[in-house]
Design the sequence.
C-alpha cells in the first residue's frame, strides 16, 4: 500500500482545484473524478457532498470518521455530508471512480425520502458495500451515461435530464444499501415521510446541540409521541437514536480535529456542565472525552 497523504493537524473542506481534471455539472452540484491520480492530495477532508467511490482495481485504506476502513475492487463506498476522511493509502494498482453529489440532490424525488434517510443513517457506520455483478453493471451504466451527457454541448433540456440521471443513479445506490440492510417494503404516509425528513435534517443542521425529542416535536407542531411513532415506522429506530448518532459524531469531530478544550466543546454542544458532558460521552462511547482525544493526539 502506498500512502497518499500524511495526517496534519488542520482540517479542510474537500475542494477541487482548477489544475485537476474533473467533470462538473451546474458548478459543483455533481463532481466526477475519473482517474485515481486526480484524487486531491491533502491531509484531512471534511466533506460537504455525498461521496460515492467505486473501486475498480486494487485496494484503498482510509480513516472514515475515526474508523479505519478498507475499500477493494468491487466495493462501493458511500459517505454522508459532514464526514471526515483522512490518512488514506492505496495499493500500486488502485483505481476508482469518484462522484461528489450535493446533498440537495438527495431529496429531488418525493418517493425517495424514507429510503434516503434510512440509508444515510446506516452508512454512517457501514459505508462499504460489496457490489453484485448485476449491481455493478447497472452502476457503471448510469455512471457512463452521466459522464457522456456532461461532456455534450448543453441543450435546452440538459438541466432536467441531468437531474433525472443523478436521481436514477442515487435511487440505484440507495436500493443497493437497502438490500444490504434487508429493509422490508412498507407503505408510509407521505405526510409522515415528510415530517421524518424534516426531523432528520433539523437534527443534522443542529449538529446535536439540541437533544430533546420535545424540542423537535414542537418545531414540527406535532406531539413527541407522534414523532416517535412515525420515526419508528420509517427508520425502525427512535428519535433519540437519531439524535444520539448525530451528537456523538459532532463531539468526536470536535475532539479530534479542533483545539477546543473539553469545557469549550461542552458549552458549544449546549451541555449544562463539563461533568454532564463527560458522563454523556462515556455512556455512549465507553471512554471519557480526554481518553478519546488522547487516542488521536499522542
Sequence:
Amino acid at each position: 500500500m502506498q500512502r497518499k497523504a500524511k495526517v496534519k493537524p488542520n482540517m479542510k473542506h474537500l475542494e477541487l482545484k482548477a489544475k485537476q481534471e474533473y467533470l462538473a455539472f451546474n458548478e459543483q452540484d455533481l463532481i466526477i473524478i475519473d482517474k485515481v491520480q486526480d484524487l486531491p492530495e491533502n491531509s484531512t477532508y471534511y466533506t460537504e457532498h455525498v461521496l460515492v467511490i467505486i473501486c475498480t482495481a486494487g485496494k484503498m485504506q482510509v480513516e472514515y470518521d475515526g474508523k479505519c476502513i478498507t475499500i477493494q475492487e468491487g466495493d462501493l463506498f458511500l459517505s454522508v455530508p459532514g464526514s471526515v476522511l483522512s490518512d488514506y493509502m492505496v495499493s500500486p494498482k488502485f483505481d476508482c471512480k469518484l462522484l461528489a453529489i450535493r446533498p440537495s440532490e438527495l431529496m429531488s424525488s418525493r418517493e425517495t425520502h424514507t429510503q434516503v434517510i434510512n440509508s444515510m443513517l446506516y452508512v454512517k457506520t457501514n459505508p462499504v458495500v460489496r457490489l453484485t455483478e448485476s449491481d455493478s453493471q447497472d452502476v457503471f451504466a448510469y455512471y457512463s451515461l452521466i459522464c457522456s451527457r456532461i461532456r455534450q454541448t448543453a441543450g435546452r433540456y440538459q438541466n432536467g435530464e441531468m437531474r433525472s440521471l443523478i436521481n436514477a443513479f442515487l435511487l440505484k445506490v440507495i436500493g443497493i444499501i437497502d438490500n444490504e440492510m434487508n429493509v422490508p417494503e412498507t407503505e408510509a404516509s407521505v405526510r409522515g415521510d415528510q415530517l421524518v425528513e424534516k426531523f432528520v435534517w433539523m437534527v443534522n443542521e443542529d449538529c446535536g446541540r439540541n437533544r430533546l425529542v420535545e424540542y423537535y416535536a414542537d418545531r414540527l407542531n406535532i406531539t413527541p409521541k407522534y414523532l416517535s411513532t412515525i420515526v419508528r415506522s420509517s427508520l425502525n429506530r427512535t428519535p433519540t437514536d437519531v439524535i444520539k448518532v448525530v451528537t456523538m459524531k459532532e463531539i468526536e469531530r470536535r475532539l479530534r480535529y479542533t483545539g477546543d478544550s473539553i469545557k469549550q466543546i461542552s458549552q458549544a454542544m449546549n451541555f449544562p456542565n463539563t461533568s454532564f458532558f463527560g458522563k454523556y460521552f462515556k455512556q455512549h462511547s465507553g471512554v471519557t472525552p480526554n481518553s478519546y482525544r488522547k487516542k488521536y493526539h499522542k
Remarks:
- The longest helix spans residues 158-181.
- The chain has ten helices and twelve strands.
- The longest strand covers residues 50-57.
- Residues 4-20 have pLDDT under 50 and may be disordered.
